[in-house]
Fold these 3 entries.
Entry 1:
Amino acid sequence: LGGLWVGFEPAGGDPDRIYRPLKAELAGALRGGEWPLWSDRLGLGAAVAAESHIAAFYPPNRLFYRVFDVGFAYRALMWLHLVGLSAATYAYARSLRAEPAGAALAAAAFTFCGFQAIHASHEPFYHVIAYLPFALWRAEVYLERGGAANLAWTAAGLGAACLLGHYQIQMWTFVLVMATGLWRVLRGESRRGRLWGLAAASLWGLALAAAPLVLSAGLAWETGQYARTAEERMYYGYPPSHWFEAAWPLLTRGLRTGAEGGYWDRVATTGYEAAFYVGTVPLIMAFVGFCDRRGGRGAGMWKLITPATLLLATMPYWAPKLHLAITAWPLVGSFRCPSRHTLTASLGLSLLAGRGLDRAVSGRAFWSGWVGSAIWAAASIAGGLAWSRGAGVDLNAGTSGLPPGLVWTLAVWFLGLALTAAWRVRLAPAWTAVVLALGELVTLYYTGPTHWGWAIEVPRASPVLSNLASKPSLGRVAGVLDDLPMRCGIATGSPYLGFRLAPEQTLMMMLAETARAANNPEPRHWLRRYGVSHAVWDRPAAILEAAQESVIELTDPALDAIVKRQSDTAARRVWRLVTLEPPLPFARLAHRVNVVGSKAELAAALTSEVDPDVVWTEAGDRFAAARLTPSASTPDLARSATQSGLDREADAVLAWDGRAALVRHAGACALVIARLHAEGWSVRVDGEPAALGRVDGGLQCVEISGNGVARVDFAYQPWGFRVGLIVSMLATILLAVVIFVGSRKVEPGRVLSNVRRRFTRLGPRG
């Protein structure tokens, strides 16, 4: 993993499309001394802290992104969390009585397994996964020894995981911690009261992350994130037809279309979501671990959990109705991709492999598992050959004409079986098995679907982004760049987030694509209102005839490597930087409000014209603007104002910094902000609370009365944030106190022993 320190990183895809841009926003907010609760650079604006991928409350993020460059901080944190994952898995395996070499094998297998290889581009995954074995390890320590400090460490692991967001893997972490306690109590290996202690630790962990959890829960409710459709819950499963992959992982990587499209569409998943292997040597030793009948903490539990989670991962294919019924339960359906259940199965196989690499295993159990793994390998190779000849499977043809990876697989299995047999008869040390496993797993890790390459510095390395960054007046940038412009401090018009987008955000993206595909003035009216000034496309754009627009065609190797490419697009693309019609100002004044009766009428009105002095609103929207609405008594407010000695032409927004505006006005007017009207926003006019309206299909608006110069202050305070922050702070203080006091605690028996020894030395006179 040392390449991360010198710039060798997951390149393109989600790291550049979403994670590093969000971290650039986090870095800017931290250096400005602010909480990154909201960002105006994500389309019409988004509640980034609630969206959770930014992980704004996670202490290492707050330190690294405040101090270091975004690219270096991203790589350094990836290295630290992967090393932490390996160390935590080792510690957890040791707590389950694995030998040092066996624990190292478990750590290697879990750190570089197939799940980790395909999700190396998903920052929340490898960050959160590190806390899965950590929390289980601390739970084991607490169940054995008790103590408030051990309980606090368990809560710390659970809380840190929740601070990282995404919340899917965290669900399994909490479930497995409680399952560990229940298993130990039912087997009489721990006190019953300590199960309640783990429940308390779970609540404590939630309290530590109360602030982001409250924000995310509110946003999920607003956007309908909880209401997943049946289709969403069924997609991205693990195909049962890939059962051979644990023994032959290179075969499914050999599809001609890569990790997406073609075959993957037919099995309703992608190669970025479905991969299941732990390495050849770990798989051999996992068979041995399954055959081992020795008692011991956790072994029986993982023998049950491993196949159970594999069944969950494949259930959409063989029992779809049962899968839909199970995912209808509270929280269970939040694990959006069924194939991600293979994470728990991978951990189970890794731990059983560590248990198998132990000379205390009986000869009968070892050779039974060894022979069983050899039979599984032979069956998997036969099954893989049959699959490769199946209908619809289009593999890359190798020079030898053999299916992809067959020679490699045969060689590694031969070495693995020979080495483990040699270890058993004491002809090779156990650590040679760990070395062979690491060699195979690291090779698979760096040659998987995640593209690894040298860091690309933006905007310096990108002609398109450099051109955009040099423009003096720039609005939002639509097109195919997703969140990438945020790395340059530019607002994106095509936001890419993990949560569902607001309808207005989706509409803006659709309008931009419509404007590209057809020379139609109607979508442009919307884009002008939404503040879109430029667009970047890697396909021809039918907008070259408009006099207000210009197109620059550039080659850009940086964008070629970073931006997602359609299957019918050449690897070396021509990039089109389009300057659209000048958008309306981000903050502008309007003097007329037209009210329509339905969304259809509103859409028709907004499509037909753009008048900066007019705003449109639907009846029922929260905006009391009667004084601005044309009526029979005041058909022309501008003329009335002039006759009263007021000069409407002098009305202007004198200053705007994103949160406050100075407005010079003569009579009633409306201040329109090209920002999403969302829950949590409030406004004050000259210090007094005012109503925040929704106009022009979703933008913010506030009415200003009287005349003169008014100060308008906008504030974003999402529901429950203050309470959540207080709860998190109190839980953190309690955590620090308990750990500090617990670490300095001296056992009473040791104190009495020391006193007795001192008095013995003093003798009778003393």
Entry 2:
Amino acid sequence: MNRRQFLHIAAGSAAALARAPRAHAAFAQTQPLRKFAAPLRTLAQMAPAVRLSRTAPPGSTPVDYYEIALRPFTDQLHPDLPPTRLWGYGNRAGGAFKHLGGTIVADAGVAVRIRFFNELPNTHILPVDNTVPGLSAAAAAHVNRAAVHLHGGNVAWPSDGGPHAWFTPRNAATGSSFVRWLPDAAGNPTADFWYPNLQSARLLWFHDHALGNTRLNAYAGLASAYIIRDSIEQSLIADGAIPALEIPVIIQDKVFTSARTADTLSTAGDLWYPRTYDTEFFDLEPGGLPLPPYSLVPEFWGDTMLCNGTVFPFVEVQPRRYRLRILNACNTRFVRLKLVGAQGKVFPDSAEPDVGNAGPALQLIGNEAGFLDGGANPQGVLFSNDRRSRALVLAPAERADVIIDFSDTKPGTYWILHNDAPVPFPGGTPLGDFFPENRRLPTPPSPGYGPNTRTLLQFRVVPPTAADAPAPRNWSLPRMNRLAPLGVLDPPPGIPIRDLTLNEAVDEYGRLSQLLGAVGAGEHGRFGLPYDAAATETPRAGSIEVWRISNLSADAHPIHFHLVNVQVLARQRIHVHQFGVDHFTGTPAFRGRPEPPYPEEMGWKETVRMNPGEATTVIMKFDLPPNPVVPVNGVPTAVAPPASPRTGGHEYVWHCHILEHEEHEMMRPLVVQP
């Protein structure tokens, strides 16, 4: 079985539905919860990290210092739910822990130094599967291992938080890539994390990346926002081009345990995650080893949407311009976003979308790597929100910097941030799409209540307290320093091209798995290679490369690159079934002409959606960050990171950011050589 049968991608067939006699089969169902019953949390309400000091010793790098703990706690995520047990980040010195807490706002050019304290218990709140590929006996023995990854950060490899850089409480046990490298004032090495912030303004995030537990730890709550500000952004705000009114929106999908689905792992109100590899949903190759009691699954999608850690929240806005900083922090679920009206002004109609009533446009001005290229899109990309326009798609880990103008909206109006992306994306099945009109669900939700995956956030327009000055007519976003000229679809001459693949296979248990491959480097899973196989992507520091990545699977995959940002050059259809004929020459069998990147990709990227049956070509430069300069015995000292004890170079990874894919094991080393 090399082609995905997951959920019977032809989901409209009667046969697919006939194989789902139980309510949502592998996935439990959250109890009905009122939509838009609680306000959206602000950053200040999400227990931001408290800066303990800012220092700039002469000759040394200016630095902000934080101490952040990883702890279990409970949080009220909906008024009708009991407090939910979570794991998350927060201030070690005290104060309440909140879901998605520990947020940081940093200044470009001022480094952030963080000492993370793992204070997690050795019993997980979710089902643990120790048969995850690559999981060592030592790692399997420590279910509270953690590895903190600053997603999108250009950081030295020991601070990147890769899968093998995990650590347990008091650092009593550590992974094979965990090193102490930053000196304290006396020169003793520490396990502090150093983020130089030599990047433009952007929304980053940090989340867990521990080998074998990434999907569980991030879902349990080990994720938070990290914002970098710079002078260019501040000038755009001061000029009125970008609104000063800013609303971060972190999107997640969850399932909550009800009294009906409570078991030995959870009680009502707790997070629920699949326990079994349910063959009603997932193909299982016969003849494999017996499945473990708790098995990882190929993909996970929730039935209940959260924004900023609150289930189905609302936010009040005035008839003014707002800036939304959106992050898709779901494990698997893509979102396809538009603003639409509500069906009425009285509950439950006020909680249900009127998809024929298009709301204000989404003006996209940036993505996960900062602003879009002002040379290509001077004022961003407009998603007009009518039925003919293309909606804004965000894969897991992608971000969107969006302006919404409510100026023409009367107070008392309701708008709903609406999602209609299928899961899996782009094929989809109705069994993962929760809304009242979906009659293919065994039990469709009632209007005004969850489970629901189509309504994320309600905007309530209230009377203004101030008026906006009109935005200047001729403002533009900054121009991008490109590795290839605007409009060029072919790789620049003389730049080496790596042909790589995205593949499907099965593991020794017969479970569907996903792999990355270097063309001609292996035969396992149609050129796919396990994560712990010897590194094949080993560029030199400072070098430029083109990667042409052919998706031989039936899913879209959000491919995330640690260390580097990439420029998307082109997309081109391929003959998937003919690929094997040409793979030894490294030449995909192309169909038609190359197509330019999407308008919203006209900027730097570090997470790129790669569509099935398509080769996506990206170009990147492997620049390592400068070494930090810190005081040692009063003397400013440049500190170089050591070589990785595992790989001998600067150890990073590239992987799919569908967390279940990454874990099983769609991830490969990216080892930058000195």
Entry 3:
Amino acid sequence: MTAVRMPADEAGTEGGRAPASERPLVLVADDDALVRRLVGVALRDAGYDVVEAPDGPAALELAMAHRFAAVLLDNQMPGLSGQEVLTRLRASSETATLPVLLVTAGDTLAERLAGLAAGADDYVTKPFSIEEIVARVRAQLRAHNAWEETLAAHARQRSALARAMAVAGRQPTLEATADVICHARAGQSDVQSAAILRFTADGLVVPIACSGPALWGMALCDPVPAALRRYLLTRSASGPWWERGDSTGSPTPALIASAPAACIPLRDDASVQGLVVLGLSPHATVDPAAALSAGIDFGAVAHGLLRRLLVEHHEAEANRMELQWVLREHAFAAHFQPIVDLADDRVVGVEALTRFADGSSPETRFREAAIIGLGFDLELATLTAAVDSAKAITPSDTWLGLNVSPALVMEDADALRHVLDLTEDRPIVLELSEQEAVSDYEAMRRAVHAVGANIRLSIDDAGSGFASLRHILRLEPAFVKLDRSWVHGVDGDPARQALIAGLRHFADQTGAQLIAEGIERVEERDTLLDLRVDYGQGFLLGRPAAV
């Protein structure tokens, strides 16, 4: 490889060392020594340091090894052409944005397009004037310096935004998270207002966070007017857009004479969950495309923080709407499963079970209702349906077992008593699940007595749930229901038999009677009878059915 000339002391150093001065360093690569010298003298006189390279390989090696402010590449050089050097420079992250001017003797359109396609920032055709070369280098450096300053400013903004976003990610609620995000973005660059709007499951558009001057007359937590709602829902389905802030094409007075704004939908899969609106100062000189691009980047970060909370809110709203429909339409029915005396196969009671019209799991339905605050409403509605349907069950002394949550008994005993007053003196057994906690057993006993003096208690799912056998010990129920996990395969399992025998002894001491759930085989029933279990329930003895 031909030796490379580095700047001398007055303009650099010999032998490839970094230049001593702080002047911008320019690489001039050309196989014509006279051209290199003339261009070098002109650039030095203009205030630059210059490094010369006589061929393509030397130019590539220098460009990769040193930090240049700009590069002039002759397109026709031995070893590697200027275009080949350019292609390799653009392929490296270290030199991908380095300003490069391609110099060529050809002036055909095809050559110019090929050079620009390879990544050249400018194109110079021989013969050229020295003044033109200097002017073009200066222009490239001005543009590059401005671009770097813009990047640095954006980096500072992103750093501040990242710190604020980290705080947002630690907020407990959707509204608190959205509020931190809005305040982090408002006031940066030309953004004077920020708002995050949520699209609800029932088709409303609700601002959940705002910062800066009010946008479009929106008020926090108040659904936007119908015309604006329809417009925002329609536009959001098509992706981000730039709202001009004037009357041109405005479908609603809220958008007339407002500030220009970048609007970024918060999209998850096929649905749009909300909208980020960044309102810019009406006096700012802003490129709409650049502002929208920055808004899209910000929207992606905001959505990453909000996505889970938005999904949870949307699912809760959808569940609420569905459960409200279930309650309004009474989309459920009571089925009853017989409870049989194992000694003589006589039906002594029935357990009321809820079946939903859409086939939903009762356990899931009741859990969802409790989460969104409709638990008591659903319990009371299904209990009322069970009591009403049970009027047709004969004989009238067959007891009716009703599943109730400890919370309903403790917190709304009056409503529960009102439902039970409809039973027409049929014996009632309230079944409390052992899988729910009871914080105050004495208060629970008082609440049960307040519901009805003749109400008997049954502990459901004994041995499977929250408090083990504590419910039985503290509440002194009339019945204890053995969980089906104790019953399944009991005929061939001495350990299960020992557990049930121990509970039988415990029940004898407290006056309780045992009910075995989930009996499906004759062998299971016979074994339970041998263990002195009083009553049984399961598919062998009768499946749940409507009256």
